[in-house]
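Priority: medium. Attachment 1 of 2:
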């Protein structure tokens, strides 16, 4: 069973449209949702959670229609949005009592263990926490009710590099269980590149691609050479090209690069930026 199935998903706002997005997240995998501000990442996540109504298409989470009010489905999904919402005066140790009533499989011991791993004091009030600490508390909650699917919207926002590394390790531990899956959006593309099995690019409400990370790394390369050498590349295979008086580089399909040209691996961030910058971008390239 796939953890997430999205087909022809649409949402129309004045001045913005999430335009017929389709993607699949296999169970046991991590999907990274990449996109600049306003690309539609948060809109898509809120549609999945039933927080807003879609204009068209379908969404299935763990085999159930998104927004299903069934209690077992809610237990199976752990959520951290870009703004963790808890009462301002609540203390960390009091959160567990509330969540035990909200989730039938709440694990207080696991929650306390995550508080220790994230170094969150038990007597800390929510309003006294930094944004990064609030995010870590949200993750501790999402990980403590035996969820099968985590949906995380900018969940590493505000975390320092050491804390982000700790969170990434915990998320990878979570998906060692083949029944566990994660959808995570982030502006920090480098983290997603290390963490994710699949990458999806959103740009202005359109899905540029959704593919296995390793496939992307094998299909595209950075090509370096003179301007004249790069002009030998088939234009249909070049995503983006930049030249200066001193150098020239392009990101292109590996199978279109003539033998003898200098190539190097492409990062997910380079690939995304190139696709966004490319005025000649065409879905047929994929």
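Attachment 2 of 2:
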């Amino acid at each position: 069973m796939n953890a997430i199935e999205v087909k022809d998903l649409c949402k129309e706002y004045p001045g913005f449209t999430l335009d017929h997005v389709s993607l699949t997240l296999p169970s046991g995998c991590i999907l990274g949702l990449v996109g600049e501000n306003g690309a539609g990442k948060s809109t898509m996540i809120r549609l999945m959670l039933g927080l807003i109504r879609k204009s068209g298409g379908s969404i299935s989470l763990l085999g159930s229609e998104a927004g299903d009010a069934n209690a077992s489905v809610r237990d199976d999904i752990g959520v951290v949005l870009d703004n963790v919402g808890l009462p301002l005066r609540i203390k960390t140790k009091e959160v567990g009592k509330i969540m035990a009533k909200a989730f039938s499989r709440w694990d207080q011991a696991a929650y306390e263990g995550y508080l220790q791993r994230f170094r969150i004091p038990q007597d800390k009030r929510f309003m006294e926490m930094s944004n990064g600490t609030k995010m870590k508390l949200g993750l501790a909650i999402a990980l403590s009710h035996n969820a099968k699917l985590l949906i995380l919207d900018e969940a590493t926002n505000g975390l320092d590099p050491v804390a982000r590394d700790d969170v990434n390790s915990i998320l990878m531990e979570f998906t060692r269980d083949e029944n566990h899956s994660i959808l995570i959006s982030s502006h920090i593309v480098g983290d997603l590149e290390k963490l994710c099995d699949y990458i999806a690019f959103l740009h202005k409400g359109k899905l540029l691609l959704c593919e296995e990370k390793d496939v992307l790394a094998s299909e595209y390369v950075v090509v370096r050479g003179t301007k004249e050498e790069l002009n030998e590349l088939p234009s249909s295979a070049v995503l983006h090209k930049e030249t200066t008086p001193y150098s020239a580089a392009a990101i292109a399909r590996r199978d279109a690069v003539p033998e003898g040209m200098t190539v190097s691996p492409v990062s997910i961030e380079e690939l995304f930026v190139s696709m966004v910058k490319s005025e000649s971008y065409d879905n047929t390239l994929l």
